[in-house]
Amino acid sequence: MSDFVVSVCVCIYNNEQYVAQCIESIQNQNYSNLEIVLVDDGSTDRSGQIVDEYAAKDNRIKAIHQGNSGFSGARNACLDNATGDFLAFVDSDDTIMPDFVDYMLSIQRQTGADIVISKNCFTNVNMQQVSEDHIVEWSPDMAIAEFFYPRVPLGSWNKLYRRDFLNKNGLRFVPELTTGEGLQFITHAASLANCVGVGSRKVYWYRMNNPNSATTKANVEKQGIGSLKTISYISAHLQNDSLIVKKAMKWHYWSCYNYCLRQIMNANAEEQYSELYRECIHYLRSNALAVSTLDLPWKHRLIVLISMISPQFGAWCMISKKRYLLKSK
Q1: Fewer CB within 10 Å, N side or C side of the chain?
Q2: Residues 227, 180 contacting (CB under 8 angstroms)
């Protein structure tokens, strides 16, 4: 496995506070045969300068500067410039453990999978490692369903991809999606994969308390309406009609309406988006009973049941939880 080159890709936009820690966690991997692709996506703070400073000291780093093109455009730049046998994404405010690449490659070696994931990750509120590791193979249908529920970390990060698999299938991020572009990418990729190799160990640290994160700031247009556009795009383009995927997608539709309602409430924009506000409430309440019968964890099921009576109160509960996580160190 040491003969393989692994491209670790980071997209950076105005993240000077965390980007150095992210880069150093990649440099300090036990596995040294790396290509580190850093894309500065038009940052206006010191992020681009920090990228150049690290690139000047490490010949494994490929520094790319471009005008701001958003998450999809930046990740596509990573895909276009990476040359490794395998490829992984790391968000610029996150870090990876020293054995991240080693561990992901070990799963790939055991399963031969086109895509490798870990079901778990460290967060600022859960730093406990799993007690036992289990490495299994998931079929494309099962992987897609797990992504939709989601019972594994969402997004393109905390995963490893065969680069020839991505290129052979022309897998790229969709520029017109303003949020959930990672979900679209991984569900599309999983639908084309031979299988998905899955481990349990935590080797990725996901920051949940970044106040500047795109998913933290209330933004009805980009995040709320954007999430509805993304799930509609996925539904229209994902060529999979298995029952397990249909059920999981039904849940994700419901959760996107819940997310949109939370964005409206968090922005105190009930009057500005009054029609959408009412649409979200109607959808959540009228579909709650059907969704409650799906294979949900009890916390999600509780929110669904609450939403039968008051979708606003269910959304408020989730807003309060998010605020708590933001305060957690």
Answers
A1: C
A2: yes
Q: How far apart are alpha carbons 169 and 223 in whole angstroms?
A: 28
Summarised one tens digit per residue, pLDDT across range 73-126 is 999 999 999 999 999 999 999 999 999 999 999 999 999 999 999 999 999 888
Tokens coding 206:
């996901």
Q: Which of 113, 116, 50, 52 is nearest to 89 (CA)?
A: 116
What is the rounded CA–CA span in Å between residue 134 and residue 200? Answer: 6
Strand, coil or helix: 240: coil
Per the CB < 8 A criterion, the answer to whether 128 and 235 are in contact is: no
d(CA 140, CA 193): 6
DSSP 29: -
Which residues lie across from 12 on neighbouring strands? 40
| Angstrom distance (rounded) from CA 296 to CA 300 | 6
Question: pLDDT tens, 192-228?
Answer: 999 999 999 999 999 987 666 555 567 999 999 999 9
Which of 50, 5, 4, 59 is CA-nearest to residue 23?
50
CA separation for the pair 239, 123 (Å, rounded):
33
- Write out the H or E segment, with its range, that includes residue 62: strand 61-66
Q: How far apart are CA 79 and CA 61, in angstroms?
A: 15
Sheet strands (E) in 149-272: 159-162, 196-199, 204-206
CA distances 276 to 46, 133, 254, 279, 282, Å, are 38, 44, 14, 5, 10
- Cβ neighbours of residue 138 under 8 Å, at least 6 residues apart? 146, 195, 196, 197, 198
Q: At what angle do helices 298-309 and 274-292 cross, to 10 degrees?
A: 120
